[in-house]
């Protein structure tokens, strides 16, 4: 059966640069024919155009955009974007992300977790599309919407759920909670509650791999860093500072903007002078790529190119993924602001349903095989809840561990009790 995703039709139906999913954008669609931009084509080569011919010292500007979908196997005529194994891996990861988050919502409303909990439903194609291409020693940096990035990066569901429950078996021993997933083993560097905080950390991680490789001559230090963050965060200064440093030092990093159109209740279109975030890449001298973030296969093609560039030492890439969150900003958000028509528009483009359709249409796997994956994931998520529920809470003595300074008047007194348990504990703190 002819697929909507065959290489020729793919770009025709979903031109990567015409912002098709954002009918809400007021700016006219990008027209490559009218633009002076050159493109990353399937040749994988970047083209440059001279900004200033008269000044030989002036650097060329990188302008980038891509029709990223290539025929994979022209010779055999199969024309597939993924193998069966890849398809099933992507499907399993996305189903895991969705089922895990749905379970989180249930557990949150049952009072099993505390504080703000931000779910990732709807955005799975971005996490899966990028992270499943990474090695274990590559770095991923997330935001407060971090559970699914952690799962994709290989942090066990038990460790993520226990962290949400605040238990000792959590990936941060229950001290981080929902917004602070971290794993040394998996090189997941957080989990950040402040928006934009992860971007400099990611830039530093990318700098460290380059430094280890080029200065310390560690040949294996070719790790790539992928930083995920939202559209609202792109109006934050750290984003611009880090784009500058990453381009200046040609760091092995991919900046992935998950543009879900909203920053809590602030529309991206109201908050951003130019809503096409990908354009900011070329402004700093790196490719800026725009991709349909509801389509894991397209995200994966862009990710391959961007991760490959970083690994080859060709520098950073900015990727804007058009996506949408299916739930409110956090579980405390009644989600009454967004237009039901907008929500319906994106719900109809559910990335998991789309991948399932592709897999079935291309006869990569049967319904039964996919159902078996769904069942396996349901059991895994159930198991993570049981595990978290039965795990112990951290001891009180853990409370001030990893607190670098112990201001006078706080901490543990000579009697082994927390000073705050002493009614006079505030005495002396005025001198701190
Ligand atoms: C430095 C800082 N300022 C403000 C906030 C409050 N805040 C929390 S989430 C958020 C919106 C972020 O939106 P976006 O970057 O689009 O990410 P999304 O929630 O859509 O994934 C804001 C402003 C914060 N956490 N940190
Ligand atoms: Mg957003």
UniProtKB/TrEMBL annotation:
Known EC number(s)?
Answer: 1.2.4.1
Keyword Oxidoreductase tagged: yes
Alphabetized InterPro entries for the sequence: DH_E1 (IPR001017), PDH_E1_Alpha_Subunit (IPR050642), Pyrv_DH_E1_asu_subgrp-y (IPR017597), THDP-binding (IPR029061)
Going by the entry's taxonomy, the superkingdom of the source organism is recorded as Eukaryota
Extract the Pfam families matched here: E1_dh
Q: Does the keyword Coiled coil apply?
A: yes
Reaction equation(s) it catalyzes: N(6)-[(R)-lipoyl]-L-lysyl-[protein] + pyruvate + H(+) = N(6)-[(R)-S(8)-acetyldihydrolipoyl]-L-lysyl-[protein] + CO2
Gene3D superfamilies the record matches: 3.40.50.970
Q: Which co-factors does it depend on? A: thiamine diphosphate
Molecular function via GO: pyruvate dehydrogenase (acetyl-transferring) activity
**Coiled coil where?**
363-390
Offer one example of a GO biological process linked to this entry.
Answer: pyruvate decarboxylation to acetyl-CoA
Residue ranges annotated for the Dehydrogenase E1 component domain, each copy included: 93-394
Q: Which UniProt keywords are present, listed alphabetically?
A: Coiled coil, Oxidoreductase, Pyruvate, Thiamine pyrophosphate
Described purpose of this protein according to its UniProt entry: The pyruvate dehydrogenase complex catalyzes the overall conversion of pyruvate to acetyl-CoA and CO(2). It contains multiple copies of three enzymatic components: pyruvate dehydrogenase (E1), dihydrolipoamide acetyltransferase (E2) and lipoamide dehydrogenase (E3).
**Its quaternary structure?**
Tetramer of 2 alpha and 2 beta subunits.
Protein name from the UniProt record: Pyruvate dehydrogenase E1 component subunit alpha
List the source organism.
Erythroxylum novogranatense
């Amino acid at each position: 059966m002819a697929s909507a995703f065959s290489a020729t039709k793919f770009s025709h139906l979903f031109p990567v640069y015409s912002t098709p999913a954002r009918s809400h954008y007021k700016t006219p669609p990008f027209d490559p024919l009218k633009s002076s931009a050159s493109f990353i084509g399937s040749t994988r080569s970047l083209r440059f155009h001279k900004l200033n011919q008269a000044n030989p010292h002036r650097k060329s500007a990188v302008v980038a955009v891509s029709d990223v979908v290539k025929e994979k196997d022209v010779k055999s005529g199969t024309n597939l974007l993924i193998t069966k194994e890849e398809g099933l891996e992507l499907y399993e990861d996305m189903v895991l992300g969705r089922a895990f988050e749905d379970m989180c919502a249930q557990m949150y409303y049952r009072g099993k977790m505390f504080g703000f909990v931000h779910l990732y439903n709807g955005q799975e194609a971005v996490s899966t599309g990028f992270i499943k291409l990474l090695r274990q020693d590559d770095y991923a940096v997330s935001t407060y919407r971090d559970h699914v990035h952690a799962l994709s990066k290989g942090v066990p569901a038990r460790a993520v759920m226990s962290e949400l429950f605040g238990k000792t078996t959590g990936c941060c021993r229950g001290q981080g909670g929902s917004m602070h997933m971290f794993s040394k083993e998996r090189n997941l560097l957080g989990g950040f509650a402040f928006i934009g905080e992860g971007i400099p950390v990611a830039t530093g991680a990318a700098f460290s791999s380059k430094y280890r490789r080029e200065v310390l001559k560690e040949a294996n230090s070719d790790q790539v860093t992928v930083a995920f963050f939202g559209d609202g965060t792109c109006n934050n200064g750290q984003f611009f500072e880090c784009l500058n440093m990453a381009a200046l030092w040609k760091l092995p990093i991919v900046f992935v903007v998950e543009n879900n159109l909203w920053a809590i209740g602030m529309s991206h279109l109201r908050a951003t002078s130019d809503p096409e975030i990908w354009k900011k890449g070329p402004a700093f001298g790196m490719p800026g790529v725009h991709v349909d973030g509801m389509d894991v296969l397209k995200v994966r093609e862009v990710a391959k190119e961007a991760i490959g560039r970083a690994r080859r030492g060709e520098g950073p890439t900015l990727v804007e993924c058009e996506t949408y969150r299916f739930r409110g900003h956090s579980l405390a958000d009644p989600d009454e602001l967004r237009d039901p028509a907008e929500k319906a528009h994106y719900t109809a483009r559910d990335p998991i349903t789309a991948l399932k359709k592709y897999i079935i249409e291309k006869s990569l796997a049967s319904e039964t095989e996919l159902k078996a994956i769904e069942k396996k994931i349901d059991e895994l998520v159930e198991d993570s809840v049981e595990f978290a529920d039965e795990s112990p809470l951290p001891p009180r003595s853990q409370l001030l561990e990893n607190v670098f300074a112990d201001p006078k008047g706080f901490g543990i007194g000579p009697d082994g009790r927390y000073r705050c348990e002493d009614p006079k504990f505030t005495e002396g703190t005025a001198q701190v």
